[in-house]
TrEMBL record, chains A, B:
GO molecular function, one term: DNA-binding transcription factor activity
Principal subcellular localisation of the protein: nucleus
Keywords from the named record: Developmental protein, DNA-binding, Homeobox, Nucleus, Transcription, Transcription regulation
Stated name of the protein: Homeobox domain-containing protein
Length: 172, 172
DNA sequence: CTAATATGAATGAAGG
DNA sequence: CCTTCATTCATATTAG
């Protein structure tokens, strides 16, 4: 198969500035491929408790991500939506596995369950439980960053202190 | 796009000595490798017309496959998902090629894929289309099997019946 | 050992 | 929100 690790051609998505991929030198990426920095930011926000950012917040997040590569509001929205779904699914799966492992009811279902071990390329510890960052003040979700450039950027927000407060995100 | 998350052993072996080489590199931590019997079952189901089994059916299929080796709902779901995609992809490829050959435009303005070689020694005809087996009765998809143990097992399915037709899986 | 292929798994995007 | 499609990544297996 064709394996492309480094892609330096982000399709001008976002539906704003960038135009159609008329570049003949660009392998034209069909869909958006979030950069590591962008993923870091998105994960930070998600882990901060903002699992369902409102429209206002989504736009701001997009602005931040744009610094590291072309991205649109829709991409951000999709990302959070998929992230939420996957998180919930993961949680349910883990819960079901744990429960099944401890079941042993001995009624009629004698189906033994093998050890649950979902292999993960990256140690994805989904610990988004109990988000205490539910303050309707400044949405500075970053504090546990790890990237260099990302952190540098995160320390210099666009002077926008407008917070939309979002304990329970509700997009319309 | 994981629908059901139920993964068991990463190596995908029923708990016996794996056929993995004596390499000291990763003997474990692999992806699920469906056993021939499992593949037979899955193919039978797929060819039976159940190309998109609902959740209930997926669980049941997983139970059947578990008899032949560790497998999770997710694996079954992935299998069907990939099967569908690949079938469609295959058809589109062939169709495109045929159309291109019949067009006789004399201009190769059509650019598809990057490096998709289509020099296949055998005609990869899935011939799985136009399945008129659209009856919402018992889901006894097996009838044209060839395996020994598999067939033996297939003749003793669980008393669970009432599946979702399989014509058009639409649940939500 | 390296290249190519087959296939399971992950993710972005879209529909309902 | 949940399900589904299409694309891509990663790895196992096979060919050279």
């Amino acid at each position: 198969m064709d394996q492309e690790g480094s892609s330096q051609s982000p399709t001008g998505h976002g539906g704003l500035s960038s135009s159609v991929p008329s570049n003949s030198t660009e392998p034209v990426r069909s869909r958006w491929s979030p950069k590591p920095e962008q993923i870091l930011i998105l994960e930070s926000i998600f882990n901060s408790g903002i699992v369902n950012p409102p429209k206002d917040e989504t736009v701001r997040i997009r602005k931040m991500l744009e610094k590291f590569g072309a991205v649109g509001d829709a991409n951000v929205f999709y990302w959070f939506q998929n992230r939420r779904s996957r998180s919930r699914r993961r949680q349910r799966q883990l819960q079901a596995a744990t429960a099944a492992a401890a079941t042993t009811k001995g009624a009629e279902d004698y189906q033994h369950m093998t050890t649950m071990s979902m292999h993960h390329p990256y140690s994805n510890s989904e610990s988004d439980l109990g988000f205490g960052s539910c303050s309707n003040s400044s949405p500075n979700y970053f504090f546990n960053d790890s990237l260099s450039q990302a952190s540098s950027f995160l320390l210099s927000p666009p002077s926008s202190s407008s917070s939309s407060g979002g304990c329970e995100s509700n997009n319309g």
